[in-house]
Amino acid sequence: MERRRPARTALRAGLSLLVAGAVLATGLPAQAAPRVPGGLPADVDAFPRYQAPISCQPPQPGTLALAQLIRDAYGKQTIGTARECPASGVPVSEHSDGRAVDWMLEATNPTQAALAGEFLTWLLATDSAGNVAANARRLGVMYVIWNKQVWKTYNAAAGWQPYTGPDPHTNHIHLSLTFSGAARETSWWTGTTDPLRGHWIALGAERSVLGGDVGGRRTTAAGGVARKDYHYGTVYSSPTTPVREVHGGIRARFDRIGGVGTLGVPLTDELRTPRRTGAYNHFQSGSIYSSPATGSFEVRGAIRDRWAQLGWENGLGFPVSGDARTPTKPGYYTHFEGGSVYWSPATGAHAVRGALRDAWARQGWENGRLGFPTRDEYPVPGGLRVDFQGGSITWDAARRTTSTSYTGN
Questions:
Q1: CB of 9 within 8 A of CB of 85?
Q2: pLDDT, tens digit, for every residue of 372-394?
Q3: What is the DSSP string of 193-206?
Q4: Residue 133 φ/ψ region, left for φ over 0, alpha for ψ in the -120 to 50 degree band, beta for the rest
Q5: Buried-most residue among 2, 41, 218, 351 (CB within 10 A)?
Q6: pLDDT in tens, 156-169
Q7: Domain residues of the chain, as ranges?
């Protein structure tokens, strides 16, 4: 999904080491287990569902904090947290989106194997209140792989199971985190087992863009989508996506067009556009972009994909209309500051701008003889051209005029 991926050069190939140095081969660990923070709530975070990676990200705050927790407890360790995202930009593991820790220990080394056993016993132990894997759940650990076995917090009743993946994990413990665990928003860090409140706390609570808690109840809809309103915004969660917020003009537009029922839950908090003054949220089924000059509008589907290929708001500019259906023929369009993107099932999504767009509009847009565009503008001797279902429009740069050629003429 993904816009604003960190540059691939920012993520080093292989494992990036948080702490240099070899694993302790002799001597005792600094303490028996990581220190459990005081003031934890009596209840424990719910058992998670498996949450597949959805974006390429650097190591997340909770990932780094878990690695530091291990180091604080057991001394100097070799711990990896990141792998380079594939060239396709599609994440293939929790390492890709910064949600995994690899603690380099050798199962064939008795001292290191004992260290692994001590840590995993502590991590997966049932607490005094009878909560299974209490520490793992409070930290947001989704699953563990070690020495040809896997333990899944989302299937805790099964216990340790044989691991049949290509890497037997005999030289490291792999820990994958939930989205909340990776964001450092579970009860271990925030003191609350409610992911919605945990996200609010992580953002800064009353000092955040959401403002204070208005006292509204947490509501859960079909499919496990939950929301909670704050003074200036709303926080959403679902079983398989990160907890994220929507506020301001973007929230107003989101609510106006149908909210979760239209765009799904947010996949990002509101983020600033990198060059121009504006903001955006990505959702499961599209994005909403906002600027002071244009207001807030949604962009979806193939039209969003084409707009992204052209440079997002740095290409055609911000959207100035929402995602709209063409009035008489099957298709959709969105207008932007610098042009329009039209889509139909037969032609796909293509941009039309400038004098070429103006000439097409005068002929009735897609309802005229030309129909939908079949290609973006491209250079020709002396100017530019756009092809349509029924012909083409050419712009003469020297004369600053356009001419239309119809198919069959």
A1: no
A2: 999 999 999 999 999 999 999 99
A3: S-HHHHHHHHHTGG
A4: left
A5: 351
A6: 999 999 999 999 99
A7: 8-187
